[in-house]
Amino acid sequence: MTTEVTDVHSLMKACQRGVAGKGPAIEAANNLLAECYGLLGKLAAENESLRKDAGRYRFVRNPLGTCSPLAIWNEGKMPLFSGVADAVVDEFMAKESTNE
């Protein structure tokens, strides 16, 4: 396998193929490749889920560019957009993490 393999699916296929040969070292290597295959699949699924969450957030935070009827609202104030929305969300998330 070359270092040029960057696509997760190509890497997963390479892990599935394993290595040829016999003996405990080859078995250990193939077991490691099987674990890597499983982990890559989980990471790819998590990455896709995070991309969808980020897309939803971008849709809400920038309604002018997406024609979204939604906005981030700071109670008792005007709707928040773009970088201002990011800053307010970050501020409230930081406060939440210190209250835990």
Written overview of the protein:
It is built from four helices and two strands, in the order H-H-H-E-E-H. Strands 1-2 form a two-stranded antiparallel ribbon. Helix 1 (8-17) packs antiparallel against helix 2. It has 100 residues and is mostly helical. The longest helix has 38 residues, at 24-61. It is elongated and about 70 Å long.
Brief summary of the model shown:
The protein is mainly alpha-helical. It contains four helices and two strands; from the N terminus they run αααββα.
Secondary structure elements and their pairing?
Elements: H1 8-17, H2 24-61, H3 63-66, E1 72-73, E2 79-80, H4 82-99
Antiparallel strand pairs: 1-2
Helix pairs in contact: 1-2
Features:
disordered N terminus; two-stranded antiparallel sheet; mainly alpha; elongated; 70% helix; 2 domains; 100 residues; 2 strands
β-strand amount? under 5%
Counted up, domains total 2
The main pleated sheet reads as: 2 strands, antiparallel
Query: What fraction, in percent, of the residue positions are helical?
Result: over 70%
| Cα gyration radius (Å) | 22 Å
The separation of the N and C termini measures 46 Å
Supply the number of helical segments: 4
**Secondary-structure element string:** HHHEEH
Counting copies of identical and different chains, the oligomeric state is single chain
> Low-confidence spans: pLDDT under 50, at least 5 residues?
1-5
Work out the number of β strands.
2
Question: How would you write the strand order of the largest sheet?
Answer: 1-2
Structural class designation: mainly alpha
Q: Tell me, rounded to a whole number, the average pLDDT.
A: 81
Shape: elongated
